[in-house]
Structure formats: C-alpha cells, structure tokens
Amino acid sequence: MEFSIILVIGAIFQVRAQETNNTKPEQNFKTPEYILPCYKADPAINKCLQRTFNHLRPYLVNGLTDLDVPSIDPFKLERIIIENGQGPLKVKAAFYNVTATGAQNYTVERIEANVDNYVIEVGFKFPRMDIRGKYDVNGNVLLFPVRSKGDFWAIFLDIDAATKIYGKEFLKDGVRYMKIDKMLVDFRLKKSRFRIRDLINNGNVIGEAMNNFLNNNSEEIIKEMKPAARLSLAKHFKGFLNSAFMNLPLKIWLPDA
Questions:
Q1: Which domains does the chain have, with CATH numbers?
Q2: CA-to-CA distance for 227 and 218, rounded, in angstroms?
C-alpha cells in the first residue's frame, strides 16, 4: 500500500515537472528607440528612469502609435468633469473639447521607484500651459447660484506636478506587463489667468463680473477645486497610461523584472 502511494506521489511530481519544463519563456522583443531600458538591480535606477522619461519627450510630442499614445502637445481631452461639494465653492463643472499646449516642455525633476512592488513616483515641472475649450458650470459660489456655459481660456505658469503610480504585473498571452491599479495626482501653480465667454450671460454685467471674479480670486478657486481636480485628472491619466503600459512588455523597459 505504502509503495503504491509513493508511486502516485512520484507520478504527480513528474507531471508537474514536465509542465514546468514545457512553460514557454517570454519571447525577446526589439527595444524601440524611444525606450532606454533600466534594470531593477541597478542601485541608481531612479536616475535611469528619470533619464528615460526625459528621453521620451520628443517622441511623445509626435505620439507613439504602437503604444496607442496620442501627441501630448497639443494634448486633447474630449471631456473631464470636476465636481466640488464642499466649502463656499459648490459647483459641478464639465470641460469638453479641451486643448492644452506646452506639455512638450516638461522636465522630470525626480523619480522615486520601488520597482519590486511597481510603485513609481514622478515629479514634473512645466514652465507654462495654455488651455482652451468649452465649459458648463452649475452650482453655488458662497450663497449665490451660478449657471454659466461657453468658451474658456486659461494660462498656468510654473507648474509643479507629481504623480504616484501603483502597479502590478499582468500576464497577457504569455507576456508580462505592468497594469496600473491606482494613481494619485497633485499639482501646484505659481500663477494663473482665466478668461471666459459666457454664452448665457454674454454681453451683460454678469459675464464680465465672472471674468473679474475668476482672476481676482484665482488662488482661492484653485485651492477649493483642487481635490476634485486631482481625482478627475488621476482617473483620466490612469486610463491614458494603462493603454501605453499594456502595450509595452515589462521585458522591454525593465529587462530583469
């Protein structure tokens, strides 16, 4: 009886060993010119990743079709919604047909990466961003109802931005990728200017008063709207970056992963 059990156990281990030996290794991929690979074992991997992100800049301006990444300059958003239900500024703002220019002048100032757990924090700097599009706002400013819809223009100067990515390995067709589970976004502006063309209150004192209010209180408005804006931007860019990373095998940009 004992001998029979030993034979069965031996057969199981043999089958599992054969399954392991038959596992196909990941194929070798050609490294595209826009990627400078980094290695987990490199003690200076943060510097390597920083160099890679800055190396990407001219390629991102034209877009990376093989990664399904559009041009970042101009960068276009079909729609983004920012909703703030706290404080004196309680509004729901929808921005659509948004075009932003100036992203190509970004500089990666720092990177802190825990590549074993696929956590990457990146600090960016943008000297200037020009943004235009259409907007639709409903809500209350202090105790006054606000209803405004039309075209907007904005200039943001000296932008410090940071994003923190929480990723994990994802296996697709026998190839490993990094998939983003969670993303955090933060930003700080030194100066901003706004201009709107209110199609509802156009040509009257309300429309002009709103322009004056926006520019005279820009710091307070950004402070109030910032938490909601961070969430909306993180949601959008998580999808944007996932479409890129899910087309870029780990073995290409992190060969010893």
A1: 32-253 (3.15.10.30)
A2: 15
